[in-house]
Design a protein that fits this description.
The complex is a heterodimer of chains A (about 350) and B (about 230).
Chain A lengths: L8 H7 L3 H7 L12 H6 L3 H6 L4 H20 L7 E5 L14 E4 L3 E5 L6 H9 L11 E4 L7 H4 L6 E4 L11 H11 L5 H15 L15 H15 L4 E5 L8 H10 L3 E5 L3 H4 L4 E6 L2 E7 L2 H25 L11 H6 L1
Parallel strand pairs in A: 3-7, 3-8, 5-6, 6-7
Antiparallel strand pairs in A: 1-2, 1-4, 8-9
Helix pairs in contact in A: 8-9, 9-10, 10-11
Chain B lengths: L1 E7 L5 H14 L4 E7 L5 H7 L4 E5 L5 H18 L4 E7 L13 E7 L6 H4 L2 H4 L3 E5 L6 H14 L4 E4 L8 H5 L55
Parallel strand pairs in B: 1-4, 1-5, 2-3, 2-4, 5-6, 6-7
The chains are: A alpha/beta (about 350), B alpha/beta (about 230).
Bound molecules: guanosine-5'-triphosphate and magnesium ion (MG).
């Protein structure tokens, strides 16, 4: 790496273009000082000015160096492919060993997590996020691609193992849909930004019942539209290989399509839910009891058949909801799922 | 004993995070005490007491809260040493976004919340920029995208910090934080000879000393004027 102490600001910026915005975000105006080194640049401030602006030259140089290191690591690396996540058993709240050998979750799989509130779902997700190494209250260990994982999964802010789609998908920023996704894309430093942004909005619109435009303010999106945007955004922009979903409400969104979108992006989907339509879409489900993994159930053929029935009921309900919303008189909707399944 | 300084803007979730983290520390058999510093008012001491945590409270009143903190941190530390606590956690609010009570060689945690707006990391000075650990709270009420954008903004102003997401209501993430707060190596016997990470501002104008009248003739000491000419934009 270039010696930051002897290189001029202009050469630094030429080598690391991302420093332009880094300096700006840290309130450093370097125009006119391009021929100085950072040390010289800070030396030019008098001590009052440094104090005034709460600057600390040594700290700033250390931070700049660290930022360059992180960005190089980020830009230079091949995307880490997480093909499998393995959970090795620990124990439940009473200290009983969990009753499974090992649970291997593969890329493209959907795993449902069921169990009463407070049973330990959060701890399980916490263990995965923190890539537990027998050092959390449950004593579980997590392997990535079959091996003891790199510590960066724990400590780096750019490489998070788990992205979360929580129940409350509120937005607090005052931006249009386009600006919002753009901001996220910027922070992820994606190239071909415009194309990615449009792809996300298009996907979101295909998940939501009612469409919205890139200019719509995010705060005026309906619940379903917000969920759709969040799902499309997380699927396409989030680097995290695991997506955790905490119940997706059915209203205003095609949940099956949503899951499919996540899976086409090679994610692993973990879903905490008590909705049978969602839970049975999973390949397996983890049953949590008393803080431990009590059972791992593979979705059976009968369950899959039942799922089609449930999905049909779901569609019927949705159709009634649409009628209601459109101000119609409710009349009986014919369920024709048998015909459909033949087609 | 280990000293940990926690600070962050008002209502960012400091107490919630500290309480949940202490739960985990206690399970490891560690004895934890808290010193709460605030300006005019706080109920936090009641919350800590309710949780069975020994607590000392200090209100700076008319003094600059961060100056007040530095003037008292040694005494508080001695109190905690005398009582043989394993960890003393100080909680103080960053009231003007300028100062930070962090001490060289003492673990420094800054707590900020996702709701404070994405430009907030740029506005907070040394309190955020020189922290070892930055805890981001209230992720439960914003979207994944906002969490990611906010964390990346924090990383830009303090790349060396470890960034953690903690839900102050459920405590999700606080166990993980607790593992980073105590180590034999960080043991201290006193604060003698230690230094602040960042100097506090050289204040002292007439108003620091109680002047209430407005007008140039009453202003003495460290006074600075804004430029408000019409052509100054
Ligand atoms: N939704 C949500 N609320 C939170 C979270 N963390 C804290 N809160 C709430 O935010 C409010 C302020 O939290 P406190 O822990 O008192 O904040 P503080 O920083 O200690 O506040 P002061 O000491 O008064 O400056 C409380 O109502 C908490 O319940 C969180 O992660 N999510
Ligand atoms: Mg508090």
């Amino acid at each position: 790496m270039t010696d930051i102490n002897t290189t001029t600001i202009s050469s630094l910026v030429a080598e690391y273009p991302f420093l332009t915005s880094f300096f700006k975000d840290n309130g450093l105006d370097v125009t006119g000082s391009e021929n100085l080194t950072l040390v010289q640049y800070f030396a030019a401030f008098d001590s009052d000015e440094m104090e005034d602006r709460a600057l600390d030259a040594d700290n700033m140089i250390v931070q700049t160096e660290e930022f360059i290191r992180q960005m190089n690591a980020f830009l230079g690396k091949e995307d880490d492919v997480v093909k499998t996540v393995t959970i090795l058993p620990g124990m439940d709240k009473s200290g009983n060993a969990e009753e499974f050998q090992e649970l291997v979750i593969e890329q493209g799989e959907i795993i449902s997590i069921v169990g009463p509130t407070g049973s330990g779902k959060s701890r399980l997700l916490g263990d995965i996020e923190w890539v537990a190494q027998n050092d959390t209250p449950t004593g579980r260990s997590i392997l990535i691609n079959g091996d003891v994982p790199d510590r960066k999964w724990r400590f780096s802010s750019a490489d998070k193992l788990v992205a979360q789609l929580s129940q409350n998908m509120n937005f607090v920023m005052d931006l249009s849909v386009y600006e919002f996704v753009e901001l996220h894309a910027e922070s992820r430093m994606v190239e071909n930004r415009e194309e990615v942004i449009h792809r996300i909005i298009e996907q979101a619109n295909s998940l939501a019942g009612e469409t919205f435009s890139p200019e719509t303010p995010i705060t005026s999106l309906s619940g379903g539209q917000s969920r759709a945007l969040m799902i499309a955004d997380t699927a396409i922009l989030s680097k995290s290989p695991i997506i955790l979903i905490d119940e997706i409400e059915n209203a205003g969104i095609d949940r099956k399509k949503a899951l499919k979108l996540l899976l086409t992006q090679d994610k692993i989907v973990l879903m905490a839910t008590h909705d049978p339509v969602l839970a049975l879409m999973g390949d397996k489900r983890i049953v949590i009891k008393n803080g431990g993994i009590h059972k791992v159930i593979e979705t059976t053929d009968e369950e899959r058949t039942i799922l089609s029935t449930l999905e049909e009921m779901d569609r019927t309900l949705l159709a009634y909801r649409t009628k209601l919303r459109q101000g119609e008189i409710i009349t009986k909707i014919q369920t024709d799922w048998k015909e459909k399944s033949h087609a | 004993m280990n000293l940990v300084t926690v600070s962050g803007p008002p209502s960012s979730g400091k107490t919630s995070v500290i309480l949940k983290t202490i739960d985990s520390l206690k399970k490891r058999g560690l004895k934890v005490a808290v010193a709460k510093f605030d300006c005019l008012y706080t109920d936090d001491d009641v919350l800590y007491e309710k949780a069975g945590i020994p607590v000392k409270k200090g209100l700076s009143g008319a003094l600059c809260p961060d100056h007040y903190f530095v003037s008292n941190v040694e005494e508080i530390t001695n109190w905690a040493l005398k009582n043989q606590f394993d960890i003393l956690i100080s909680e103080s609010a960053g009231l003007c976004n300028r100062c930070s009570p962090y001490i060289k060689g003492i673990k420094a945690v800054c707590v900020i919340d996702n709701l404070s707006g994405i430009n907030t990391p740029k506005k907070i000075g040394p309190m955020l920029k020189t922290a070892d650990i930055v805890v981001i709270t209230k992720g439960d009420i914003v979207s994944q995208a906002e969490r990611e954008v906010f964390a990346s903004r924090v990383n830009t102003v303090n790349p060396s910090a470890m960034i953690m997401h903690i839900n102050g209501l459920t405590g999700q993430g606080s166990f993980e934080l607790s593992t980073l707060l105590y180590s034999e190596e960080n043991h201290i016997d006193s604060l003698k000879g230690m230094e602040l990470r960042f100097p506090m501002p050289a204040a002292l104008c007439s108003y620091c000393l109680g002047e209430t009248r407005i007008g140039e003739s009453y202003q003495m000491g460290n006074v600075r004027k804004m430029k408000v000419d019409d052509d100054n934009d």
